[in-house]
Amino acid sequence: MQQHPILVEATRGGVVESFHRGALAIAQADGALHTALGDIDRPVFPRSAVKVLQALPLVDSGAAEHFGLTDEELALACASHNGEPAHVRTAASMLAKAGLDPAALECGAHWPGHEGAARALAAAGQAPSALHNNCSGKHAGLVCLGCLMARQAGREPGGFVGGYLQPGHPVMREVTAALQAATGCDLSRAPMGTDGCSIPTYGIPLRQLARGFARVATGQGLSPGRAQAAARLRRAVAAAPFMVAGTGRFDTRVMERLGERVFCKVGAEGVFCAALPTLGLGVAIKMDDGNNARAAEVAMAAVIEALLPLDDAQASLLASLSRGVLRNWNGIEVGTLQATEGLRGAFGRR
After folding, report:
1. Strand blocks (E) in 280-332
2. Which CATH number is 265's domain given?
3. Residue 285 and residue 299: Cα distance in Å, rounded?
4. What are the angstrom distances between the C-alpha of 186 and each of 17, 53, 191, 264?
5. Handedness of CA 272, 263, 216, 211 (dihedral sign)
6. How, if at all, do strands 43-44 and 33-37 pair?
7. What is the spatial distance between Cα 53 and Cα 18, in angstroms, rounded to a whole number?
8. What distances in angstroms separate CA 184 from CA 44, 54, 176, 205, 255, one per listed residue?
9. Number of domains making up the chain
């Protein structure tokens, strides 16, 4: 396997203590490359980074309109959320609108990712449910899509939706078709694994992931219905960025500041994708060591910082994310975590 360039470095005592290698693709909707670093043709599992692509059928089918889903609910359908109370309530609301309850979710349960929410749940003597799963919004959206499909087919929704996460289920076939159309990747030939929330995940090259997100950014290359769905989802996330991640999270913080100029979504194992509508570009990053907070987020911050004009507040936020200070438990500055000169130099300016 090709050795990728170093994109992020951690320093201590004025020297590099550790570093993170990775690959990066930035592309237009027609597939033309803007920037490429490393092997962008090796298939990677994008995991949760492609939730906005997986949510396209929810809107394109008419299910979102049929069930009256709000901006907050559509944003949650694209989310890897913290499991905070607002996230849990919103996922439950989506299911209620479809006439089902949390038992319909097949994503499994885990403790909230937000420490305060997890402590509060434990203090109340409660166990986490599927609603606390960081993917509950995506799964609630899949359930809503399945309920509309069932009604259109004259089927009982609860029975029809069961098993929706299986590759051959009608709901998952719609989701896979949308993912394939957006990226241009033949998923019938792609490696297939199982994601943390149990739906299929496919190996897709960064080149094609970047093209898919450029299509989300512009609508170009998508069917008219999916182009409208992409624009609707981007508006929803810009209106309710808390729902797509939560307190203190990169995606929420960046989209709160930059609004519709950026749609960004982290995935597991060091994958990060973004749509930059004003530039007509899509971004896809994969860190070799699978590190998110210490690597993928830093690299994505550097990309956004380099490509988009920023006001002072936006520039300050992105600089803090791409050139972070490391402190010990006493609050003493001990080093830095920052994008490398090699990554910054790929864009022709720092």
Report:
1. 281-287, 323-327
2. 3.40.710
3. 8
4. 41, 15, 10, 24
5. negative
6. unpaired
7. 34
8. 15, 14, 12, 10, 27
9. 1
Closest CA relative to residue 26, chosen from 18, 36, 41, 16: 36
271 lies in some domain? yes
Angle at 45 between CA 40 and CA 51, to 5 degrees: 110
CA distance 323 to 339: 7
Find the domain containing 36 and state its range.
Answer: 6-345
Q: How far apart are CA 320 and CA 109, in angstroms?
A: 33
In a domain, 1, yes or no: no
- The CA-CA-CA angle for residues 43, 48, 52, to 5°, reads 100
* 46 within 8 A of 23, measured Cβ to Cβ: no
What span, in angstroms and rounded, lies between the C-alpha atoms of 129 and 110? 7
Task: Dig out the tokens for 130 from the structure.
Answer: 């599927």
- The answer to whether position 250 is within a domain reads yes
What is the model's pTM? 0.96
140 part of a folded domain: yes
Name, in order, each residue with C-beta under 8 angstroms of 91's C-beta and a sequence gap of 6 or more. 76, 102, 105, 131, 136, 137, 140
pLDDT block averages, 10 residues each, the chain of length 350: 91 94 97 96 97 98 98 98 98 98 97 97 97 98 98 93 96 98 97 96 98 98 98 98 98 97 96 98 97 92 97 96 94 95 78
DSSP-derived pairing of the beta strands 200-202 and 192-194? antiparallel
